[in-house]
Amino acid sequence: MQTLEKSTLTYGDIHVHWPYGKIRLDKLELIQQAGAHARLSFSGWVDEEWEETIIQKAGSHDRVGFIQMDESGRELPLFKGQLHEIKVEATRGIVYVMAVVISHTYELDALQRTKSYQNDKLRYLDIVNRVMKGYPEGDYIDFAFDETKTGAFIMQYQETDWSFLKRLASHLGADLVPDVTAHKPRFWIGYPEGRGAFELKSIPFEKSRNIERFLHTEAQGKHAVSEEEYTTYTFDLGQELQLGDEVSSDGNTYNITSRQAKLERSLLQWKYTCALPASHPLPRQLQTMITGAAIEGKIIDVKRNQVKVHLDMDEGQQAGEARWFPYAAEGSQVWYMMPEPGAKVKLYFPSAEEDEAMVMQSVRQEPTEAGHVEKSG
User: Fold this and answer.
1) Cβ-defined contacts of 45-53 (< 8 Å, 24+)
2) CA 319, 154, 257, 83 torsion: positive or negative?
3) Within its chain, how far is the Cα of 181 from the centroid?
4) Burial of 325 (0-12, 13-18, 19+ CB in 10 A)
5) Is a pLDDT exceeding 50 seen at residue 368?
6) Global model pTM greater than 0.90
7) Measured between alpha carbons, how far is 23 from 88 in angstroms, rounded to an integer?
8) How far apart are CA 28 and CA 5, in angstroms?
9) Cβ–Cβ under 8 Å, residues 164 and 131
10) Which residue, 286, 306, 285, 296, is CA-closest to 375?
11) CATH architecture of 288-375
């Protein structure tokens, strides 16, 4: 077991690499945790000649790196991302900039999409791979899904790809963790495998406990729980650790779940939060916005009181991979004719569980926009 040292990076060991010349850092903060895009905030002074260039050209296309120089002169990335916000203050030739940089996973969080995955034999990773085809430089490492199949109808409904994948990960109690070591949208599904346990010696913890979540889980009676599973520990350290790394103290082993770095008095100080491995699983997330939605499509097959549907919003739908949905006629009719293949229908979602969707009565053949969605209730 390795012992953590209190070595601390100084102002001279760290640099911000960006397209607008050298910046003399005043303030800097880095935050990385599961389920959210990592952020780097910094401010400082740049040469006056860069003022107009920054104002006219700075944008999300700019890549920014926060770099550590080791003893041999090698550059080690502490953070890589894209420019998210910038503000420039200029007074009497002194140019002060304040910038926020966000991890490249933000690229997955820009556009809302609606798409169905009807084949319940798909693996979760099959869906992830289809989503990631839209990001040529994108990449992920899976620590949660493995070969698990969905076993259900899955619907991405007015969600960004990031939100959708986060929801899928929650089906297995996992979350998405942004990787900040490369200039591309890369993430882990579930906490990454950390390095071997580091032992904390003479380093004080700050302890906190989520009593509300503990009581909620205990009241559900799903399994035996202990308060320790809902307890987190925070400590300060000069040394850099990664999310997922193990730390040991008083015979217990914890995993790093979030980290924060701040430049304080020319020293880079890290603050870490850790918890027991058993406390990591997240509750299953639902897409509540889908409740009451009715999405248009057409019948492609009929069997007794069930139908298969090609939804208008989807480019194509192979009949062999389409889901059999229950069909419900309008109103309280006892006798009704099943629709024929080609008939226009609506896929209705009575709850936030997309797998409970049902096909409703045929709709009038009127010109509509592809993928038209209605809300009822």
Assistant:
1) 45/94, 45/95, 45/96, 45/97, 46/20, 46/21, 46/22, 46/95, 46/97, 47/21, 47/22, 47/95, 48/90, 48/93, 48/94, 48/95, 49/21, 50/20, 50/21, 50/95, 51/88, 51/90, 51/95, 53/20
2) positive
3) 16
4) buried
5) no
6) no
7) 13
8) 23
9) yes
10) 296
11) Beta Barrel (2.40)
Contact partners, residue 344, CB within 8 Å, separation at least 6: 296, 297, 298, 362, 363, 364, 365
User: What DSSP string runs through 93-121?
Assistant: TEEEEEEEEEEGGGGGGS-EEEEEE--TT
**pLDDT tens readout for residues 312-332:** 999 999 999 999 999 987 655
- Which structure tokens are listed for 133? 């085809």
Q: How confident is the model at residue 221 (pLDDT cuts 50, 70, 90)?
A: low
Q: Which residue has the higher pLDDT, 223 or 275?
A: 275
Closest Cα to residue 105, out of 189, 44, 29? 189
Average pLDDT, the chain: 89
Residues recorded for the chain: 377
**Lowest-pLDDT range, 232-241, 262-271, 330-339?**
330-339
